[in-house]
Specification:
about 375 residues, alpha+beta, Alpha-Beta Plaits, 2 domains, 4-stranded antiparallel sheet, 12 helices
Length: about 375
């Protein structure tokens, strides 16, 4: 949906086309999985898919929202201590409350929003929604000069924690706020420091393959892995695995036990791979980027054990068919495979993998085109 379509819906709902247009993107993560809670680095980029909103202050204390994608209308008072029940409206409400705590005098407004971030693909449509409104409401009722992009990203993260009940890290909101066309970003999850890296893959493209499966596992696999990492860090005498050396890890291997050792081995290896990708991008060496992606998948599958049959199949078929790089993107146990592929092979492989996946699992996978785009912004 483009700005003209959004403003037309706004006019139909609220009787005027006098509204500002804002947008914020979803994201991908090239490399750096399960590193955030280990104090490490992630390597995200904003995508061209995202959330777009038409919004205007209405001179009252009432917020009136229309979510065009789901054809749902809702209202609440800006100073309501409880807020709306609908989950997607709570992102808007929560961001408003967080901005109020930062001193922004958020009042009533009218808004229409819609998006094209594929749901269930791990591209963070929720961060796009919260960042779109964090940017818009600050611009409408406050001053963007008084807040850093990280301030607004943290408002989105706090919304997830306090109003949605998801204890997420900062990567999604960070990428949605800070994205830059032609660049990926290396974020230090411990310090919040980041750096832009050039993304000019001449002759290459990114492809997401959504496996369209999500396995529900008994127990708490993410918590189990986090405990393994914390156990090894404690044995090594460091705060997080970010500070653990290979020598320290080998010295406590027997003490840690084989499973926890393998979990930590993956994390330390991923730290090295993130750095290798940084170096490769500086010299436009996309074959090295692809090599590191395959190594990450191997570690996630064999050492961290967060893959599944469907994702292993997608990565194996990618490697067999000459795809430059492929790996799980996200927490694992389903979701998406991210691929770096030569442009000339893109269409042929997309056609092949959809047929092969259907033949193997009797279900469809979905191809999602990826272009790196800009972060939260005013469109007009």
């Amino acid at each position: 949906m483009n700005a003209d379509q959004i403003i037309e819906i706004f006019k139909n709902k609220f009787g005027s086309d006098e509204a500002r247009i804002y947008a914020a993107p979803g994201r991908i993560n090239l490399i750096g999985e399960h590193t955030d809670y280990n104090g490490g680095f992630v390597f995200p980029g904003a995508v061209t898919q995202g959330i777009m909103a038409a919004i205007r202050a209405n001179g009252t204390n009432e917020v009136r929202l229309y979510a065009a994608d789901v054809d749902e209308y809702g209202t609440y008072m800006a100073d309501d201590p409880e807020g709306p029940a609908q989950r997607h409206f709570r992102y808007v409400y929560g961001v408003g409350r967080e901005l109020m705590e930062k001193g922004v005098e958020v009042k009533g407004f009218d808004a229409v929003y819609a998006g094209d971030v594929p749901l269930g693909a791990g591209m963070s449509s929720s961060a796009a929604l919260s960042c779109c409104f964090a940017y818009a409401l600050t611009d409408l009722f406050g001053s963007l000069d008084k807040f850093s992009k990280m301030d607004l990203a943290k408002a989105g993260q706090a919304t997830e924690h306090k109003y949605i009940g998801v204890n997420c890290g900062i990567m999604d909101q960070f990428a949605s706020m800070h994205g830059r066309e032609g660049s990926l970003m290396r974020l230090d999850c411990r310090s919040g420091e980041f750096r832009y890296y050039p993304w000019n893959p001449k002759g290459y493209r990114l492809m997401l393959i959504n496996s369209c499966v999500k396995h529900e596992l008994v127990g708490s696999p993410y918590n189990d892995r986090r405990r393994s990492c914390e156990h090894v860090a404690q044995l090594a005498g460091v705060e997080t695995l970010r500070d653990c050396t290979w020598e320290q890890l080998e010295a406590i291997r027997q003490q840690a036990g084989e499973e926890d050792y393998r979990r930590a081995r993956y994390v330390l290896g991923e730290a090295d791979r993130v750095q290798a990708v940084c170096d490769a991008l500086e010299r436009d060496d996309y074959k090295m980027v692809g090599k590191q992606m395959y190594l990450t998948h191997k570690g996630l599958s064999e050492d961290y054990e967060v893959s599944c049959e469907e994702l292993d199949f997608l990565v194996e078929e990618a490697q067999k068919n000459g795809v430059t790089g492929a790996r799980i993107m996200g927490g694992g146990f389903g979701g998406c495979c991210i691929c770096l592929i030569e442009e000339q092979k893109y269409c042929e492989f997309a056609d092949y993998i959809q047929k092969a996946y259907k033949a193997r699992f009797d279900t469809e996978c979905k191809i999602i085109d990826v272009e790196i785009g800009n972060g939260a912004r005013r469109v007009r």
